[in-house]
Amino acid sequence: MSDRILIIDFGSQVTQLIARRVREAGVYCEIHPFQSVTEATVRSFAPKGVILSGGPASVTEDTTPRAPEELFENLGLPVLGICYGNQTMVAQLGGRITISDHQEFGRAMVDVTEDCVLFEGIWAVGETHQVWMSHGDRIDALPEGFRRVAKTESAPYAVIANDERKYYGVLFHPEVVHTPQGGALLANFVHRVCGCDNAWTMEAFKQEAIAKVRNQVGDDRVICGLSGGVDSSVVAVLLHEAIGDQLQCVFVDTGMLRAGEAEEVVSLFKGHYNIPLIHVDASDEFLGKLDGVTDPERKRKIIGATFIDVFEREAKGIGGAGFLAQGTLYPDVIESVSFTGGPSVTIKSHHNVGGLPERMNMDLVEPLRELFKDEVRGLGRELGLPDTLVGRHPFPGPGLAIRIPGEITREKLDILRKADAVYLDEIRSAGLYDAIWQAFAVLLPVQTVGVMGDARTYESVCALRAVTSTDGMTADYYPFDHTFLGRAATRIINEVRGINRVVYDITSKPPGTIEWE
Ligand code: XMP
User: For helices 373-382 and 202-217, what crossing angle results, to 10°?
Assistant: First the structure.
């Protein structure tokens, strides 16, 4: 087992970034919400160190989230407290926190006052460095055994250290890019303080994942739905390496795929990888069940349930399968664990997380549960998948259904498929595909008047969407130049019958979402 770090989450918006930075340092880590962490769970996870995340609470309130007392009493592990995590550590160890009369949000400068193992190779005494702050409380008195190693104008104890117990605390957020040397500081903690090696590579992950899958599945069969996207393709190739012919891939044509998708998937997996693949045309079944349905969540539920019907039928066809493989990723897993412990608001039931019907007869195999999207891409490369596939934009399980607000018909799907293909063709020819996280066309349920060849038209509006993102959780619209947008719009209107107007969506996420439904 590779060396590991436990991150205890107090609900900061950027806790995931701590995990990313630690993994970039070559160390495996997991995020656990503070309520779920006990001495027993820490011992069974067996970390070499613990990081306490930031969070929205203030230690000065009456009841606030706390790290388990055993962490400081019995476990003897190195601890790094970040922002709120630092404050609760200080308070729990007998220091004093007060509400600051000068809150610090955003960019701040720290003065390095003493040497510290966290600063090795990056910061020297007497230097000043940029960090990113987001706090309203300050430390007034340090607990016993601690010394101050850096300060800011308004925070006398910006970084503190207790070298004997290996406890360190930073008031700023080293995990965000606005703290330029923050990644190196976290790497110092995991390597120099905790003594972790940097053995967590994709090669190591691949070997561990293969062993886990073999152990879970035994000699049973696994059905894997291939969508043509990166996640399901990586799952399929990984499972094929793990269990060979016990894997049966199923490619379901829902009738709501993009142009040319079915052909590409079949030729890659059957032709290139020689992975057993059943190609099911279930478009009548999907579209029949969606007839007249306009509500986005009902669309997702119907599609999720129909996928399972198809998979179960196919499983029967091959004499039974005990498992269904899914490309669930780490952000889905973390997002479905609510920080408050109460039910969190469902924005969309992404069907590879919460939307599976309860009556499903197969158990899930989810070998990517611990990975971020860019790590999945790394694993894909490790498995030898071609760059064109590894770099593909994400495509949602419900397909074009959630890009046609309102009722879905075959005619609308045909129109959208054509517009989407022209748009992506323009993006590729402009050399922009890899700079964009996801780009697609949406067919609006709105008709507008136009004039083409001296005649009046009354046809649909097509919206174009393109976003940049690192994980799909936040996103910004892509700033195309006007010449590009004009060219794409002209081609769509000229080449796609049924569309006479094109608009570009400039909403970020939040407040929008990436998909329109
Ligand atoms: P949103 O629209 O929530 O999308 O900002 C974030 C990312 O998730 C994809 N997405 C889905 N994927 N089933 C999926 O498998 C779904 O129901 C679904 N809805 C959105 C979306 O394409 C984007 O990459």
Answer: 90
Are 266 and 278 a contacting pair, CB within 8 Å?
no
Report the phi/psi class of residue 341: left, alpha or beta, with left for phi > 0 and alpha for psi in -120 to 50: left
**Is the beta carbon of 439 within 6 A of some atom in ligand 1?**
no
In this structure, the number of other CB atoms found within 10 A of the CB of residue 322 comes to 18
CB-based burial, 487-500: b 16+ in 10 Å, e otherwise? ebbebbbeebebbb
- Judge residue 342's burial from the number of C-beta atoms within 10 Å of its C-beta, 0-12 exposed, 13-18 middle, 19 or more buried: exposed
Task: Tell me the per-residue pLDDT of 172-197, one tens digit each, with 9 for 90 and over.
Answer: 999 988 899 999 999 999 999 999 99
Span from the CA of 294 to the centroid of ligand 1 (angstroms): 18
Distances (CA, A) of 19 to 9, 13, 53, 116, 339: 11, 12, 10, 23, 16
Q: Is the CB of 350 under 6 A from ligand 1?
A: yes
Among 295, 297, 515, 516, which residue has the most ligand 1 atoms within 8 Å of its CB, making it the best to mutate? 515
Angle at 39 between CA 38 and CA 42, to 5 degrees: 85
Question: What is d(CA 106, CA 104) in angstroms, rounded to the nearest whole number?
Answer: 7
The residue whose CA has the least distance to atom 9 of ligand 1 is: 396
Distance CA 67, CA 6 (A): 12
3-state SS of the chain: helix, strand, coil percent to 5? 35, 25, 40
83 catalytic residue (yes or no): yes
288 Cβ neighbours under 8 A, 6+ residues apart: none
Quick one: pLDDT band at residue 241, thresholds 50, 70, 90?
Answer: very high
Task: Let me know: does 347 contact 297? Beta carbons within 8 Å.
Answer: no
| The one catalytic residue among 83, 116, 196, 224 | 83
Whole-number Cα distances in Å, 111 to 30, 53, 115, 182:
32, 23, 11, 15
173 is catalytic: yes
Nearest to 209 by CA among 246, 249, 237: 237
> Which token pair is 118?
């966290």
If residue 281 lies in a helix (H) or strand (E), which one and from where to where?
A: strand 277-281
**Residues 258-301 pLDDT 10s:** 999 888 888 888 877 888 899 999 999 999 999 999 999 999 99
Question: Whole-prediction pTM value?
Answer: 0.79
Verify whether residue 224 is a known catalytic residue: no
* Cβ atoms of 375 and 23 closer than 8 Å: yes
Contact criterion met (CB below 8 Å) for 270 and 277: yes
Q: Which of 104, 175, 261, 366 is catalytic?
A: 175
Ligand 1 atom 10 nearest Cα:
396
193 secondary structure, DSSP code = I
Q: What are the φ/ψ torsions at residue 426 (nearest 5 degrees)?
A: -65, -40
